[in-house]
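Summary of Year 1 activities. Much of the first year was spent building the evaluation harness for sequence design. The harness presents a backbone, in tokenized form, and records the residue chosen at every position. We chose the following record to illustrate the format because it has been used consistently in internal testing since the harness was completed.
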């Protein structure tokens, strides 16, 4: 199941959409707001905290509060959040278990960009935000 979800995610649609979002800070801000509304989608507090962290990450990049970001990591985060907030993806969210694919993508991306998120958290710590 997980590999099928990742293949679907990696086909390009989500990454292409992310590229268009990255060049428009207003789209990033709207994605951030949408992602924050969905932090109760399921998966518990840890998932909710991770979605909040990813949302804050893209918001800080869009507003230039965080400038030493990895561009590919940003692309993956934006793509994952677009996937997360889109109700009609591989497993539509209105189906029972429809959030499983969303959670899988988010957790996979978090694991994939662990070093970038550590740098970002360090940046927040230096600002005394976390």
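For this record, the design step produced the sequence shown next.
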């Amino acid at each position: 199941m997980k590999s099928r979800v990742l293949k679907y995610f990696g086909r390009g649609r989500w990454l292409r959409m992310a590229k268009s979002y990255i060049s428009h800070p207003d789209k990033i801000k709207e994605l951030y707001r949408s992602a924050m509304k969905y932090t109760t989608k399921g998966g518990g507090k840890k998932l909710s905290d991770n979605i909040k962290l990813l949302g804050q990450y893209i918001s800080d990049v869009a507003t230039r509060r965080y400038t030493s970001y990895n561009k590919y990591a940003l692309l993956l985060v934006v793509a994952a959040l677009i996937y997360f907030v889109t109700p009609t993806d591989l497993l539509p969210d209105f189906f029972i278990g429809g959030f499983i694919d969303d959670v899988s993508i988010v957790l996979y991306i978090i694991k994939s960009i662990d070093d970038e998120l550590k740098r970002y958290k360090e940046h927040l710590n230096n600002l005394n935000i976390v």
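The longest helix spans residues 44-62. Quantitative recovery figures across the full test set are reported in Table 2.
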